[in-house]
Amino acid sequence: MPHYFIRKLEQFTKLSCDDRQALENAVCKRRTIAKHADIISEGDDPHHVNLILDGWACRYKHLDDGRRQIISLFVPGDLCDSHVYLLREMDHSIVALTPVRLAEISRAALEQVANDNVRVTKALWWNTLVTVAVQREWTVNLGQRTALERLGHLFCELFLRLRGVGLTDGPSYELPLTQVELADALGLSNVHINRTLQDLRRAGLIVLKGGRLTIPDFDALQRASLFNPNYLHIDREGRHFDADGSV
Fold it and tell me: Which residue numbers delimit the HTH crp-type domain (predicted)?
């Protein structure tokens, strides 16, 4: 069972046992991808949707001179675009930032699940809307926020996304990103990332040790980063209901 994916969808709409089984049945293949290997590359013909079961990945674009922009991050439970198979060819690449275990879902299987399961359809629509909202927020990050705000904002977002699928431990979570990857995601230099991490540490806003990030006071980091979690829609009323619609 891709349980992180189920947990993520149930932030938006409660699913029945049949809904969960239909999603499980939609998985046609599981693969393991090595760290730094492309899951799919720009120019490839996408035949299926990739679901991250374990590990971290990112969507990125390369410029002709080799510079890279990380456009979004994928954590366990994330779909790498639910309608990507509509494209004739990929206009971006997706790479594994850690060893990744993923599930492939075919176009036919995903459409069948959506057609036969109303709650799954609603949850997938909400998931798509939140994905687009996250992309908007990343644009604001790059265009308007300071370095400290960008980094703190990303840490707050990742904490809530990971907590939603059960991958936090109190105020902590695993953060397997390098400073280079953070720089590529936030439009900053490696040196600037290093200095900003030191600023956040000195202010007591984060503890980063051994690939694990701890946020001692989430409210304080939220204020310092101008972070408003409304775009994640974590208070969706649908998650409070049983699958039959009753409270």
Answer: 145-219
Tell me how far CA of residue 215 lies from CA of 10, 14, 192, 205, in angstroms.
25, 30, 21, 6
Q: What is the pTM assigned to this prediction?
A: 0.91
Q: How far apart are CA 62 and CA 143, in angstroms?
A: 20
Per-residue tokens: 38: 């492309």
What's the number of CA atoms in the CB half-sphere (13 Å) around residue 114? 15
Looking at residue 215, which CATH number applies to its domain?
Answer: 1.10.10.10
Instruction: Decide if 222 contacts 171 (C-beta within 8 A).
Output: no
Residue 48 covered by a domain: yes
What would the pLDDT profile of 87-133 be if each residue is shown by its tens digit? 677 888 999 999 999 999 888 888 888 888 899 999 999 999 999 99
Does residue 140 lie within any of the structural domains?
no
d(CA 106, CA 102): 13
- CA 102 to chain CA centroid, Å, is 14
pLDDT at 24 over 60: yes
Q: Are residues 149 and 126 in the same domain?
A: no
Helix (H) or strand (E) holding 62: strand 57-62
Alpha carbon distance 180, 70 (integer Å): 10
